[in-house]
Design goal:
alpha+beta
C-alpha cells in the first residue's frame, strides 16, 4: 500500500528577504526569522515518533537563518541511539538545477538492511525500493531536493512482505559549499500494527494509514 501525495508533509522554507533600508531590513529579517521558527514548530508537531523529533531538532538547530546545514555540520556521534535507523543519501547532479536528480545511498544503518532484506549502501533508490511506490518517493524527494524543505510521512511495508508494519520516515536536506542540496539525511522508524495506529492517533494523523 502506498500513501497519496497529499499525505507527504513538507516543512521549513528557507527564503531570504532583504531591503536596502537598515531599519526595514532588520524588521524584515525579524519577521522572516519568526516565520521560519513557526514553520519549524508546525512541521515538528506533525512528527510521530520521539526519534523523528530528536533528529529534526538536531538538524533545525544547525539551520542558521535561511541557510541549511552542510554535511560537515552533522556529527553522528551526537545521536548514537539513532544510528541503526539513519541513512545518508547522495544527490547526483546537485549543481545542475534542471538535471535529473538520481539519489544513491551513501550510508545506511542496520535497520534499513533489515527493512529491505538486503544491504542498500551504494545502491540507487530505484534499485531496491518497490516500483509501485516510485511516484510517492519521487514526490517526497522532489520536495526535499528542489524546494530545500524537510519532509515526513508513513508507509505500510506490506509490499515488502511485512504486513502490519509501518515505516515512519523523515528526510532532511543538506547543502554543499555552493548551497546546492547535495545530500539528504534520513531516519526510518518501524512500528508494528497497533503501536503504529496508536502513535498516529496521538498526533492526529490517523488518516495517513487509514
Amino acid at each position: 500500500m502506498s500513501v497519496e501525495l497529499g499525505q507527504i508533509e513538507a516543512g521549513r522554507f528557507h527564503a531570504s528577504q532583504r531591503l536596502s533600508n537598515g531599519s526595514q531590513e532588520t524588521a524584515v529579517q525579524s519577521r522572516a526569522a519568526q516565520n521560519l521558527d513557526e514553520q519549524a514548530a508546525a512541521f515538528k508537531a506533525q512528527l510521530v515518533t520521539a526519534e523523528q523529533r530528536q533528529l529534526f531538532d538536531y538538524w533545525d538547530a544547525r539551520c542558521i537563518g535561511d541557510a541549511l546545514p552542510k554535511r560537515a555540520d552533522i556529527d553522528p556521534i551526537d545521536f548514537p541511539r539513532l544510528l541503526p535507523s539513519i541513512s545518508l543519501l547522495e544527490v547526483e547532479n546537485a549543481d545542475q538545477r534542471h538535471a535529473e536528480h538520481r539519489v544513491r545511498v551513501r550510508l545506511a544503518g542496520t535497520r534499513l538492511r533489515d527493512m529491505y532484506g538486503r544491504e542498500t549502501t551504494g545502491l540507487y533508490l530505484d534499485e531496491f525500493l518497490p516500483p509501485q511506490n516510485d511516484s510517492y518517493w519521487t514526490a517526497a524527494f522532489t520536495r526535499v531536493i528542489s524546494q530545500g524543505k524537510p519532509a515526513q510521512g508513513v508507509l505500510s511495508l506490506e509490499d515488502l512482505g511485512q504486513a502490519g508494519t509501518f515505516q515512519f520516515w523523515l528526510r532532511l536536506p543538506l547543502v554543499d559549499a555552493e548551497g546546492n542540496i547535495a545530500m539528504v539525511l534520513g531516519l526510518d522508524t518501524l512500528l508494528v500494527s497497533e503501536k503504529a495506529r496508536v502513535a498516529v492517533r496521538n498526533t492526529s494523523l490517523e488518516s495517513l494509514i487509514a
